[in-house]
From TrEMBL, chains A, B, C, D:
Coiled-coil annotated residue ranges, if any: none
Key words, A-Z: Acetylation, Hydrolase
Enzyme Commission identifier(s): 3.5.1.2
Single GO biological process annotation from the record: glutamate biosynthetic process
Designated name of the protein: Glutaminase
EC primary class: hydrolase
Organism: Leucobacter luti
Length: 303, 303, 303, 303
């Protein structure tokens, strides 16, 4: 298969749709992003990589960060994280409080905001506020030591965070935050505000298609752990559209409201696609279409 | 009827139960209250008043304050407050977030914590942070100008307030708080922390048995408004035990986790009873029993 | 007070609204009722009675029957019925299955369809299928031995009963029906299909304003039981608009989708009003307005 | 890989657990099954097949039938079935009515009882009551023309069916059943009561590992449809433990309360395992353990 040709064809196929969807508006800084952008990168397990469109333009990774924080929590503490967060699909919007209340402070899965706050709190407890293992990981795996949060996005999130504050205080009321609420939120906003390009994200996530093996050949997490992170992505990676994505595309993946999607073909490759406009479920509209094209053209899906 | 004799009989009847129930533990300062206390006061519409037991001992009025803030909001703005809060029974615990989320930030009624926060925010908007119309009202109607919040209780509430903070930020995320979240919470904690005795509370609430008429004969709210506040108390005054109280006792009333209950016999009298131990629904166990005795002995109920 | 003059004034006041609202459509026989009808009756505790408009025209009593079956169950078995049905407001539509499932087959209150089915089952168990204590009671108290179900309405209900069948089988799955499901449903449809006029219903329900005393001076239920039935009517008599009715009108009452409402002024009188058009909550639109007028003009409410 | 040796090792590994779990009790006929049985079959895409233990003993396929009825509905009508049933995980027990009510009669997915009733109704509408395409398919693909429902199981289910009747009438009340309720239920009970062995079920389901291709080489459904059925099995095949199964085992599968599980390794093989004892989520306890062993030993999972 000529992967570069495939990406070129996908870009041409989705071209007429570029600019579709609605850019996330609840974070002012994101609302100002030019919607007419589209990029896609593929990093093969053999190390070769491909890109099309705006694949080297940085964007706000937002909830895609949740995959990496989960991986770091598993690396640091193994299955202990599952005492504090479940791994069931939510069947509800990403920021639902009702479920959290019903479950007495145990979030349904690590990819809902509540679950990611718990994972963030867990990592803070393991590494302390001075260390930032997420930035370390992303920089090393992507090969770009300059990766960092966009301070304006982070400030913008903090200033429009009533819902996340409500969730964090509810977690705290159930005893499922161990650090100070404000410190957890600040770290969480910083993680979501990290800027990376498609090329960088596809590289950074490639260990999930390589059974947990980092770019330098060492093991970040075990093959079983990598397989299981992929399983959680498939069942819970797209808010309440996870089953729909499994049905249409059939790949583990994780989306962010910045318009990015990281998807994994286990044993084959890591993919990142980006287009800012979102569909009604909060996932990149053109990104979903591009992944649909990708699985149709390559025949690669897990099913 | 010899009301003093009736109160003495009630005190004797519930005597063996005094000390029963569980003192509210989530607010440390309240948890330290001596549970073996019981007081009851009745203020008749003719101005006569009666008391038994610890009826002159101040206690933390807690959620009973919500009746008075609702009255002040109705006085200030009429039915406008109902655009921001409903008046249906909750069918759920007093601090449920699930309902609030489902209703998109409109609390079910003004006696749930969420509803009281909205009413507090409304009053702050009307009067500003410098004025305190609640203290003014309680002082004037009770005749005690020294009534004030217990600073230790207020601080204690603020320090154990994750759940209320979660509710307040959720309200704010739906645009149903207009003042700064922290300022609304501080005022709310201060209101709940006010200390009053049974005698003072029965006097302060007597306008509700007099069709809205204050102690000095002027009208605080209209007879129709007073009737309607009584209706809201009957259907929503006891968290999720409101219908149970209507069934057993049959009077409009409002309880607080400090162990106090204010009850109204429209056209006849205002009653306040206090005993710190709570039942499983969060209402004063001995207080409920005393009111049960009261309606049995007097035959006074609204039904 | 000149009660006849009051009724005449009410009829004049609501006159322009007569015909408003939507006649119940899910039962074909009811959908064919002429909407331009209005009647109202009052039976005073002194035995005098008054009427205006179509107060002698029979209509389908529907859910108003639930008050009388509850009374008969209390008469037969005392508080035992409360082991099988709660007495909390539903906070949901009258035919919700979700709550019933959550509560494992214990209906929230005896006035929801599920609760009335349990009460009907209980009465069938007490009296057997040959006896019909409901008809006996209604005939004796109203003085009309010809009262009976309208066979066409009953058949019509049975033919459009998927929802009620679903509820009944769910109750049965939780073990909360003791008779055969079909037999319970048939009896339930027959009870709802009973035809009575405002004059007859006001007479039949008057024992609730007389502390449980029948027309012949004997006690049907105790004063305490009568008071408690009134309490359940106030908190649960109007589907999810019960608190709204308490707020606006302030009387215990029970509505039916045939457009009738029975309301009680404890110690004073029994009222029945009828107009076929319903509001969005399923209560008679003009009937609610007439009761609103009634309490405004008489000043009679429980609050 | 020596598949027979692998199966022998698995049987030895789970041996100590055989007999664990609780046999389904709500269907008397199933409750009488000897719990100390275990069988497992694998049918490779090259046509070879393997078995261990009681792999030729027939058992009640129960909900595994739902995979085949979904396939037949897709074959007959394509995506039209998705207008009547969703494909989201339920996040709730397999027989929940609450969700069904909230979604106004559209079941969450075709593997919940409600969804399977709708699919059954759809097939009845397509084929009529005389034809039985499900039996035709199972007989042809398994090579056993004697496959049929166990009449005693079917009768037993019909006699303990209050919950399913409740669901069916609720579907009907929302207009989402087109045939007579009793006829749909009878057909549904018959489908669940079909008896097959592990060997037969693995053969019958093998088209899902072959991209929709039947044993005779013809196409039953398209490769895309087969992939999508696999996706629905992965996200919804194990009641509210679907994500857990994806996490632990990582294969599309469908369980039944008879203790059987059908699992698919796309492109490789079809697997059926059976052991009557169930875990708390209603899935075969030993069957789950055997599949866990299978993926560990073969390294075959979709992730």
């Amino acid at each position: 298969m000529d992967m570069q040709a495939t990406l070129d064809e996908i870009a041409e196929a989705v071209g007429p749709q570029i600019g579709s969807g609605v850019v996330a508006e609840y974070i002012p800084r994101l609302a100002a992003v030019n919607p007419d952008q589209f990029g896609m990168s593929v990093v093969m397990n053999d190390g070769s990589s491909y890109g099309v469109g705006d694949f080297e333009v940085p964007f706000s990774i937002q909830s895609i960060s949740k995959v990496f924080t989960l991986v770091l929590a598993l690396q640091a503490s193994g299955d202990a994280i599952w005492d504090r967060v479940g791994r069931e699909p939510s069947g509800a919007a990403f920021n639902s409080l009702a479920q959290l209340e019903f479950k007495r402070g145990i979030p349904r899965n690590p990819f809902m905001n509540a679950g990611a706050l718990v994972v963030t709190d867990h990592l803070l407890g393991v590494s302390g506020t001075d260390a930032n293992p997420l930035l370390d990981l992303l920089r090393t795996e992507s090969g770009n030591p300059e990766i960092r949060p966009d301070a304006l996005v982070s400030t913008s999130e903090a200033g429009h965070s009533d819902r996340n504050r409500s969730i964090a205080y509810l977690l705290s009321s159930f005893g499922n935050l161990r650090n100070e609420v404000g410190a957890v939120l600040d770290r969480y906003f910083d993680q979501c505000a990290i800027s990376m390009s498609c090329a960088e994200l596809a590289s950074a996530g490639a260990f999930l298609s390589r059974g947990g093996v980092r770019a330098d050949g060492t093991e970040l997490i075990s093959p079983l752990q990598a397989k299981r992170v992929n399983a959680v992505m498939l069942t819970a990676g797209f808010y309440d559209a996870a089953a729909e994505f499994a049905y249409r595309v059939g790949l583990p993946g994780k989306s962010g409201v910045g318009g990015g999607i990281l998807a994994i073909v286990p044993g084959k490759c890591s993919i990142c696609v980006w287009a800012p406009g979102l569909d009604s479920a909060g996932n990149s509209l053109v990104g979903m279409a591009a992944l649909d094209e990708f699985t149709s053209r390559t025949g690669w899906s897990v099913f």
